[in-house]
Design goal:
187 residues, globular, mainly alpha, 2 domains, 8 helices
Length: 187
């Protein structure tokens, strides 16, 4: 039987982080749901729980807050996929990456791809290197761990491209119906 670590000492920090995440992700997650998910993740990893119990307060809060933001981000992505509000699939991204060496002009997809790859380079350098190695250099991963890393990199790039696309569409304010109503004048 596996011995579980008590969550009681961590609960004030978990509650505070969950409230903060829910506040920053309105309409995406509720504080209670985030709190439950954080507890579940900690309970699923007794080693992590033991490390959390000895962490300094500020580091503990940042770590738990990061877990909460990851939960909210995953919930947003899951909702977008479920509701059909995603634009790219992993297969779409693979196709775009395969076509990168043969320029065919600029499109929204190519812009999203470029911005997504830049994001990977900045925040996930190992994923960036994996994609560059496979799609720009042409090296097919042979080791299972490299295949898994490439798969995760493609999923992360797809999520980033969908986020970029969604943001651009939300910010788009030109076109029919975007001009303010003209006031009747007496000419």
């Amino acid at each position: 039987m596996t011995k579980t670590v008590p969550l009681d000492p961590l609960m004030p920090v978990i509650r505070k982080a969950a409230r903060s995440v829910a506040f920053q992700w309105p309409g995406v997650v509720e504080a209670d749901d985030v709190q439950q998910e954080i507890c579940l993740k900690i309970l699923e990893s007794p080693g992590t729980a033991k490390k959390l119990l000895v962490m300094e307060d500020d580091k503990l809060y940042r770590f738990v807050l990061g877990m909460g933001h990851q939960i909210a981000s995953d919930a947003r992505t899951d909702y977008d996929h479920f509701s059909g509000q995603f634009y790219y699939s992993v297969d779409d991204v693979k196709t775009l990456l395969s076509q990168m060496l043969t320029p065919t002009g600029f499109s929204d997809a190519r812009i999203d791809l470029g911005l997504g790859v830049e994001k990977l380079a900045d925040e996930y350098p190992r994923y960036y290197e994996s994609i560059i190695s496979r799609y720009m250099i042409g090296e097919v991963p042979k080791v299972n761990s490299e295949k898994i890393q490439l798969s995760r990199a493609l999923t992360k790039l797809t999520d980033e491209m969908n986020r970029i696309h969604r943001t651009r569409v939300d910010e788009y304010d030109d076109g029919p119906g975007s001009r303010p109503k003209m006031v009747d004048s007496e000419w």
